[in-house]
UniProtKB/TrEMBL annotation:
It comes from Spirosoma liriopis. It comes from the Bacteria. InterPro entries: DUF4271. This is DUF4271 domain-containing protein. The keyword Membrane applies. Pfam families: DUF4271 (PF14093). Coiled coil: none annotated.
Length: 393
């Protein structure tokens, strides 16, 4: 038989005292974390910190009783699994924040710093980063959380990989590809200039582009699918593909899925460049087929070849000059801020200007009702532009 430690009256009295204690001294409850408690805690890194052990020559778990004087605490942060969340950092004394052994931010005492994990993912292009907080000794002065905002009033800190580094900066594989890509484009343009000199001078002539009197019997216009034209279309495909990879290298996503243009090895990027070049080539050649079909419906067969030639000629001039300018800016400046609007605006202006120019060219060559001509240009020029902007934005 089990002994009875408390009688029934004593148990009732004890229960009453516990209930009274809970009512008189309620436990404090943390409603949130971060600035003004505006974030719900998703993960606390308090038990995840590591310190460097000189004896083991490796990072070992941090134990407060054994390493009370440690000033630098480190941990791995999984970015890929915590998209759309924020990283919150705070120290009771002034300190410093390192990411992958590079100094990224000075931490002021008592101030919360909120970093968008999405921006970290775009900046470092790694599924995981190694984060170090350097400051006062011990763990009580440091707080690191992954949180979710209760509201959108707090503006996340967008972190760019352009701050002071305490180690030699490694070159991105994109830099290697962009240099090789420029040499490749120089080689293809040199080949065309040497072996197809007349066609090269014609395609890259601004004066010829702006001329409204197109020579229909010209070998470039009368045979749009000739070997010469196909080579220049292929060269334009290389330029467009290079431009896509260049934009992606500035942390501006060309595609919504990160499985496309998201690789980090040189051979992978070269493979994606080849795929993009093939897709661009098929698209440009498919446009001529679309022009033939739509032109047949509107009975405009006589201007199809001129339309295709003028569209190619303008695209070659614009995209070649744009790629050259962007490469010059990228290789001669280090503090340039790249944004989607800055790149989309000149492309949008070009396509609208080309649409108006093609209208003038076709109108001067063919006697056709404005309604038919406008409908034709909308289908083959304006609608693809609208669809492209829809996916880009």
């Amino acid at each position: 038989m089990l002994p009875r430690f408390f009688s029934l009256p004593q148990s009732a009295l004890l229960f009453f005292l516990l209930l009274l204690t809970q009512v008189a001294f309620p436990q404090t409850r943390t409603e949130g974390i971060g600035p003004s408690n505006q974030y719900y805690p998703v993960h606390d890194f308090r038990d995840d910190f590591q310190v460097y052990d000189e004896v083991a020559k490796a990072y070992v778990p941090y134990i407060v009783e054994q390493q009370p004087d440690q000033r630098a605490l480190s941990t791995y942060v999984d970015l890929e699994s915590n998209r759309n969340y924020n990283l919150l950092v705070s120290t009771q004394q002034d300190g410093y924040l390192f990411i992958n052994a590079a100094l990224k931010h000075k931490l002021e005492a008592g101030k919360w710093y909120v970093f968008s994990i999405d921006s970290l993912y775009r900046a470092f292009r790694q599924p995981e980063i190694f984060l170090t907080i350097y400051g006062a000794p011990g763990l009580t002065n440091k707080q690191l959380f992954i949180g979710y905002p209760k509201s959108l009033t707090q503006k996340p800190v967008v972190l760019r990989d352009d701050n002071l580094s305490v180690r030699p900066r490694t070159f991105s594989v994109y830099d290697n590809f962009l240099s090789l890509g420029l040499l490749f484009l120089l080689a293809t343009h040199t080949f065309l200039f040497s072996f197809y000199h007349r066609a090269f001078l014609r395609f890259y002539s601004l004066r010829d582009l702006l001329s409204l009197r197109a020579q229909e019997e010209s070998f470039l216009i009368s045979r749009p699918l000739s070997g010469t034209n196909v080579l220049f279309v292929l060269n334009l495909s290389f330029v467009v593909a290079y431009l896509m990879v260049f934009v992606q290298s500035r942390n501006l996503d060309v595609f919504l899925s990160r499985h496309l243009l998201g690789k980090q090895s040189l051979w992978s990027i070269l493979g994606e460049f080849a795929i993009l070049s093939f897709v661009a080539f098929i698209t440009l050649m498919g446009k001529y087929i679309a022009l033939e079909v739509i032109g047949g419906l509107y009975k405009l067969q006589s201007i199809i070849n001129i339309h295709f030639f003028k569209a190619l000629q303008s695209s070659m001039l614009f995209f070649t000059v744009l790629t050259l300018l962007l490469a010059i800016i990228a290789y001669n400046t280090t503090s340039t801020t790249w944004s989607e609007s800055a790149l989309l605006l000149p492309i949008l202006i070009f396509y609208l200007a080309r649409l108006a120019f093609l209208y003038i060219v076709i109108r001067s060559l063919e006697s056709i009702k404005n309604l038919y001509l406008f409908s034709y240009l909308c289908i083959v020029e304006l609608i693809p532009l609208i669809i492209g902007l829809r996916f880009a934005l």
